[in-house]
Design brief:
Blueprint lengths: L1 E4 L14 H9 L3 E5 L10 H6 L3 E3 L2 H7 L2 E3 L17 E4 L7 H10 L2 E4 L14 H18 L21 E5 L3 H12 L3 E6 L2 H10 L5 E4 L2 H10 L2 E4 L14 H5 L6 E4 L20 E4 L2 E4 L9 H22 L1 H7 L1 H6 E4 L2 E2 L2 H7 L8
Parallel strand pairs: 1-2, 1-4, 2-3, 4-5, 5-6, 7-8, 7-10, 8-9, 10-11, 11-13
Antiparallel strand pairs: 6-14, 12-13, 14-15
């Protein structure tokens, strides 16, 4: 099979869908790997590294998309890439379609088979291709929040950990999943007072044990969210419903009552966000202010640390890439239910329930 790796074109996206090590694995199995020139530079991977691994360096994206049977990316295709997709092609990348009608419609029109990293799911409900980026995003969300809390960046001028005689900042984490746990670890490590809200009692109990009672755990409902957001210096949105749009937990009225100079970092923005006033931003223009509250809503936070993020992501994706290259998407889906669960659209049909529900589209079975 011909496996293509185009350069990412999303604002600030410095990751790449495959490392030279991944290319070597595929070429040794007899597959061709086409990598667009410069695709890995921001992650510290030069064209010559790919060439030494047996990959072919393509001069442009058109060449990669035109020849590849399987396109391996990091982020969803953008409008400039829509015309390059074609029937019979397989796309393997983050999609987050439940909050992206335009991308969904383009994938359906092109009749590609599109598999979302974020919806590849194990029998136990785990999300193995989302976890590594969620870990990074959770940790970075606190770093970002601490940065924007500084007065020079428009924030309240609060040090996350405080100092003797001066209390620490109040950090509120909405969601106790992978993003939330990593945000909690970093925030507590920096000395903040941290409150986490979730609707899963077992998850709250686990976090309380993990943090040895030093973490404040609260069952999430509209009243407790309103109270916590009201006293927070930093709010981390870490809510996830697999494949679906994130629920809106923080209303515009709640934001209006927050402290001036407080910061919201909504990691769930790639699934539509859990804050009513949130809209996607970019690494070049990461923030905006509503009612005196700084909003940070970059959908691809891990792209800021591409050397770490690319290796973490591709370590997880490569076994699936190999299986797709060896078998093709239909046979791979029949052999591996994790891949089958990850398929969002195929041959002009919506095959993931959450995507169909998000847009009121008919749900098909494939394969």
């Amino acid at each position: 099979m011909i496996v293509g790796v185009p350069r990412e074109i999303k604002d600030g996206e410095n990751r790449v869908g495959m490392t030279p090590a991944g290319a070597l694995t595929l070429t040794r199995r007899g597959h061709r790997v086409l990598v667009e020139t410069g695709a890995g530079l921001a992650s510290g991977m030069a064209d010559e590294h790919y060439a030494a691994a047996g990959a072919e360096v393509a001069p442009d994206a058109d060449t990669v998309w035109a020849q590849a049977d399987l396109v391996v990316k990091v982020k969803e295709p953008l409008p400039g890439e829509f015309p390059r997709m074609r029937e019979g092609q397989t796309l393997f990348t983050y999609l987050h379609l439940a909050s992206a009608r335009e991308v969904t419609e383009a994938l359906l029109a092109s009749r590609v088979t599109a598999i979302g990293y974020e919806t590849v799911q194990t029998d136990s409900g785990g999300l193995p291709l989302l976890v590594p980026m969620s870990e990074i995003a959770g940790k970075m969300s606190v770093q970002v929040g601490a940065h924007y809390l500084e007065a020079g960046n428009g924030g309240r001028g609060v040090l996350l950990g405080g100092v003797p005689g001066v209390p620490p900042a109040e950090v509120v984490v909405l969601g106790g999943g992978v993003v939330g746990v990593n945000a909690v670890k970093v925030a507590m490590g920096m000395g903040a007072h941290v409150t986490v809200l979730d609707i899963n009692h077992d998850r709250l109990r686990h976090l309380d044990d993990l943090m040895q009672g030093r973490l404040t755990t609260v069952y999430s409902n509209p009243l407790t969210v309103e109270r916590a957001v009201g006293y927070a210096d930093l709010v981390i949105g870490a809510v996830l419903v697999t494949g679906a749009r994130a629920p809106r937990l923080v209303t515009a009225a709640m934001v209006k009552e927050m402290r001036p100079g407080a910061v919201i970092v909504d990691v769930s923005v790639d699934q539509g966000g859990c804050v009513e006033t949130i809209r996607p931003t970019s690494h070049s223009q990461p923030t905006y202010t509503v009612d005196g509250v700084i909003h940070y809503a970059v959908p691809n936070i891990p792209a800021a640390v591409p050397r770490t993020a690319t290796h973490a992501l591709t370590n997880a994706t490569l076994p699936y890439v190999v299986q797709l290259a060896e078998m093709g998407p239909e046979h791979a889906a029949r052999q591996n239910r994790e891949i089958a669960r990850g398929i969002n659209v195929a041959q002009g049909m919506v095959v993931h329930p959450a995507v169909a529900q998000a847009f009121g589209l008919p749900l098909a079975r494939w394969p």
